[in-house]
Fold these 4 entries.
Entry 1:
Amino acid sequence: MKEVFKRSLDGFIFTDDLHKDTYNLLILHNRQVVAEHSKSVAEECKTLANKFGINEEAAEIAGLLHDISAIFPFQQRLEISNLLGIQVLKEEEEFPLILHQKISQVMAKEIWNISNEDILSAIGCHTTLKKEYKQLDLLLFVADKVKWDQKGGPPYLEDVVNGLNISLEHGAYAYIKYLMDNKSNLKVVHPWLVDAYNSLSLKLSDIR
């Protein structure tokens, strides 16, 4: 295990229960809101997996681990990414919060020995999605947005839910379209998000 992770796990006792371990680790680092959010996202992942015929166990694991890097403070994430050898894009350097998806992906692999490429892929793009997405990528991306960790209901929720009545692609597209329509409110526009938007736009235009 990488040294940067060992320091954050010092004194933590694993139980082999992923639900308990992810929750308790976040609580240990005073991330109560993220701990509750991750539980909610994991449940939503199972619900969506059942609806769309995707492996429920894989979906739940992705949901539980997607924000596990929240144990690291915002201001440390750029340094940690560099220590882990993660490729950092210009937009991520400007707004390091986005790096949490990539750090969580590495943590899932290094700490919990997750080898399922679909799970790792979904965790690694759950904030931005990406151009060549998989079904589990879409599922976690949407579940994370439906069960957001802010106060009140998300302003895009109705559009996303309506989209999900058609497909995961429609749900994901509804969310990204909301962001693009309100681009001036974003700290940065991540290139993966733009790529995903273009891919979804093209795919859905072919369906219509």
Entry 2:
Amino acid sequence: MKQTILSGLFLLMFMLVGLLNFGTVEASPTIVDFEIEIELKDGTEYEIEYAMKSSKIQAKYVVPREVALFGEEALPKVEAFFQKVNVIPDANKEKLIAEALRAFGIDVKDVDEFELDVIFDGDKKLTIQKKFS
């Protein structure tokens, strides 16, 4: 009898928590297509591209003083960049620019142009185009 009452109370608490929506966590949107290009005043360019097409991932990582990487070889570098920069649809654009520059070790005073285009699942988009000079 005691066990039945405890089981009933547990079930009731579980249902209340579900009704109140406690414990629900919304997943971050998945990046479907990503491209960033940063051009410095001296002409140096940084470029990362990432795209999920069907079940395949395409990637490109071209950064000065590093070997250019493409396809699966580029994925670890691209994923490391995503870990450093919080790329979400409603990101603060100035903060995102600062995070991206920091990830590459670029001083903002050296930047001529910054471009970012991202498409997330659900067709959410984020676009930044900024000329610094």
Entry 3:
Amino acid sequence: MVSNCMNLRQKFRFYFLNFYPPYFAAGIRYKKIGKDFTHFRLTMKLHWWNRNLVGTHFGGSLYSMCDPFYMLILMENLGEEYIVWDKAATIRFITPGLGQVVADFEIPKEEIERIQKEADEKRKLDVFFQTKIYDSKTGKVVAELDKVVYVRRKERIKKEKNIINS
């Protein structure tokens, strides 16, 4: 079942992600977290400490801004009975990032329910997502990110181990 409310523990945990050292050091900030954890919006301003050699956003900071969010959305919505892992990622740099950049990560509830159903029916599942990082003033796309997230129901693993051990 897809969860639909944010409790105090979850609010506290996600608030402190702003202070997670890789995000804090890069200047990455949460601007919006959907109540049902289906949407995250992050921003990153250009500072002297997150610039590359040519004065634009460092690619590693742009990638780290995007790293865990599809996985987090699925973990929060599918619950503890599912294993969710980031499996692969590709980032393409489109245009230099010169100001504040923004990235949105969203999985609609209907898509989460489809993923849950498919994971229940299959042994394992790879889910593909794409997002864009864009300049907050011009709207120009700075980078595109493709992610592959692995999903598997935990009880299937227990059943398979029992069959092997029998």
Entry 4:
Amino acid sequence: MTLKDILEKRNMTPYHLSKISNVPYSTVNDLYKGISTLEKCSAGTIYKIMHALGLSTDMVLVSIMEKRPGLENFKREVRQGINEMGEVKYVISVLGKNVIDFYMQLDWHIEALYLLATIEYLCHKNHLDFIDQYDYSALETYVPEEAIYPEGIGLLSRIMGMDMKERVLEFAIPEYMKYNIIEYEMDQVV
């Protein structure tokens, strides 16, 4: 996501960002126009801009340095985070750092939905009401029309010689189904 995208979503001009961040207008304008990129800015400049926008510098640096990993890799990263932190700490971390909103700002809608479904599942499983404090209703507009199945379903269907999608639906986890994402083995998810 570019600075231009962020500013347009917030109906903010480069001039206004320059004033509230104390970053020279020429720098902000070059970033806005794509003449320069955040990767070429000093850490201080990035910090000032992100602080003025209310965004985490860490998250922005990650988005600059990482390419979109693909959904299956994203799922593995989520599972790894849960395994390292534990379910409850993971929920607190994701919600506390507004990670779902961060993915929405990157336009990574499927990843945001997957993470939201995971958080809802973990909250339900652990009898936590943290998720009730957040309003993610805007995400519902990004629910894909076609269901997203785990990558292995196609391979499993070929091996079994039959379409496994309907069979998998019988065991699908409701928190994911709500967002048209099919997860059926919780051991794969957490």
